[in-house]
Design goal:
The protein is an alpha+beta fold and about 400 residues long. Helices cover about 55% and strands about 20% of the residues. Keywords: Cell membrane, Membrane, Transmembrane, Transmembrane helix.
């Protein structure tokens, strides 16, 4: 039999009982659609985490006070919690050459005022390196004055919009609390973070300005900082640099051997790796669940094809009696199984793509990313399902004895 004859015969057989054929394909349709939707959600989530990784920086370390160690469970003064200093920053900069950028920082929140407009915003006192470490770009204007101007300020997009509307605000004087500062530049927008916080609702001032003019009433030790952020040139040096920093700070803070550190070093690459591994595991889990449903659909095809062989034994005997060989019978039943799985696969792809887009529209917080490779893989899997689960019924049909088959009523 020619291929066209096999295909025409298979289509005629399926059309003769179209309801059963449609219900048989339903398992493959659901399986393929599930694979596409779940994998698209998983890849979208992974892409969102990759974006977050770019924001955090895989070559970065953050050093913060160990508040539990500083307090020891006893109520203490505010100055006792400032265990890091600008001296630590300078020591790390000079003694660990692998550190490329480093900045201490102070932070707080206050009312930002311009003329009759005001906006409650967070502020940070930082060095110029802080912008590079955290991926901030000055969109308009200039960065902090290298000459040491202590009255300059950089504003985020949200603050700029709320205070100045369509104007850039560069050169204007704003007040943070009661402290007047001059806007020297605006920051390029970053949008919301992965935690839903508006990153553009920020004001940045020189670190010394924040220490003397914005936090002078808090009774901080001289040169204190709340946090130290740094970046290394080579990601492979991150573990080594972390060890060197811990050793240097223990020495500077006179912490005895075995004593608890009054600081904490966070390796952002380890946090990122953990988040990435967790998301990848969830993606595999979602894909496995969808694949199981696809296998169940394939088993349904095998079951119906076996029933079809049983119902059509006399037909098979007649075909063999008029000259059809075992290979012709095998190809016919295999073609029927392939048509069921391929038709179900195509419908499943359409439903899966539509479902993934619908999920993205309904829940904007759930990222969805369609991937052509996943769709092609789903199509290939549907073909493989037809071949795998259709071969045994086709082989069983081709091995029937024609004389015994003709005796069947």
């Amino acid at each position: 039999m020619k291929f066209s004859d096999v295909l025409r015969t298979a289509l005629f057989a399926l059309r003769g009982n179209w309801m059963r054929s449609a219900l048989t394909s339903l398992g493959v349709i659901i399986g393929i659609a599930s694979v596409i939707v779940m994998v698209s959600v998983g890849q979208g989530t992974q892409a969102e985490i990759d974006k977050m990784v770019a924001g955090l920086g895989s070559q970065r370390l953050d050093i913060s006070p160990n508040v539990a160690r500083a307090s020891g469970g006893v109520r203490m003064s505010a100055s006792s919690f400032f265990t890091l200093s600008q001296g630590d920053v300078e020591a790390i900069r000079s003694e660990i050459p692998e550190v490329q950028y480093i900045s201490g920082s102070l932070r707080g929140s206050s009312q930002v005022v311009y003329a009759e407009r005001n906006w409650n915003s967070s502020w940070q006192g930082v060095d110029a390196d802080y912008l590079v470490i955290n991926g901030w770009v000055v969109r308009e204007g200039a960065g902090f004055d290298e000459a040491g101007d202590d009255k300059s300020v950089l504003i985020g997009e949200t603050v700029r919009r709320e205070l100045f509307g369509e104007d850039s605000g560069i050169g204007e004087t704003i007040r943070i609390g009661r402290v007047p500062l001059t806007v020297v530049g605006t920051l390029a927008p970053k949008g919301q973070s992965s935690w839903g916080r508006d990153q553009d609702e920020i004001v940045m001032v020189p670190l010394e300005t924040a220490r003397r003019r914005l936090m002078g009433s808090m009774g901080m030790p001289p040169g204190a900082v709340m946090e130290i952020s740094l970046a290394v040139a080579n990601p492979d040096d991150l573990g080594y640099v972390q060890g060197e920093i811990e050793s240097l700070l223990r020495q500077r803070h006179r912490i005895p051997p075995g004593g608890e550190d009054d600081f904490r070093v966070r390796n952002m690459s380890e946090i990122v790796a953990t988040r990435t591994a967790t998301t990848r595991l969830m993606s595999w889990l979602l894909g496995a669940v969808a694949t199981i449903s696809l296998i169940v659909g394939g088993i349904g095809i095998m079951n119906i094809m076996l029933v079809s062989v049983t119902e059509r034994i006399r037909e098979i005997g007649l075909r063999m009696a008029v000259g059809a060989g075992p290979s012709d019978i095998r190809r016919q039943f295999l073609a029927e199984a392939m048509l069921l799985s391929l038709g179900g696969g195509l419908l499943g792809i359409l439903i899966g793509v539509a479902g993934a887009l619908l999920v993205g529209q309904i829940n904007t917080e759930l990222p969805v990313e369609l991937n052509g490779k996943v769709i092609a893989l789903a199509a290939g899997f549907s073909i493989a399902t037809g071949l795998f689960f259709g071969y045994y019924p086709a082989r069983k049909a081709s091995q029937l004895d024609p004389i015994e088959a003709l005796r069947q009523q």
